[in-house]
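HUMAN: Forgive my ignorance: could you write out one protein's sequence and backbone structure tokens?

ASSISTANT:
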Amino acid sequence: MSGDTTFNFSGQRVLVTGASSGIGWEVAQQLLDSGAKVYALGREPIALKQLRDWGCVAVAVDVSDNAALVAALEALPVMHGLVNCAGISLLEAATEVSAEAFDRVMAVNVRAAAVVAGHIAKAMIGAGIKGSIVNVSSQASLVALDDHLSYCASKGAMDAMTRVQCAEWGKHGIRVNAVNPTVTLTPMGKMAWSEPSKRDPALAAIPLGRFAETAEVAAPILFLLSAAASMISGVALPIDGGYTSR
């Protein structure tokens, strides 16, 4: 499991979507290390079993299946926090965008995130819990990336969604923020960016000269979930080594 953190989520229930891989996997581990009761949604059976062995309540669900997603959410208790991390990317040139790929990306990255957050926030409001929600967006919402039209559009929508949720739920004491990571070295990220002709120009555009590790994305997410960020809501926080500063 992950290394020590400075956060204490003892007695708090936190839902993490996309928890069976990548950033969601790291967030679930760091939350467990910080004392949270973690509820994990994902699709990878082996990873979900590992999370259960560590003490998570792990549920297998495809978030693009709205009926299955709603059924899974209705079986959960009221949460104190949510990390919306489930996401996919289907790359196509802007001249070759297909309705099928566009709809699939939007269903996972935007619709599912909105449904999950709405369900969790409604339960928080009913229980009088002043919770925190973090939507995992991307630097792709802030800059143009070749062959990423659907993905960029979905993450731009997620940032807009975050602002609306912040505005509507703030009066109930619920904070909603987004984080916007650069390329992150998940197993899939390492493979996707291993080709030097693709990797080197991307690295050259990042002032720190490297991609992000999953732990470097998870730690700011835990900060935004925590009481240390009690007056922060409605932000889209780049975790990009300075990429979007140029």
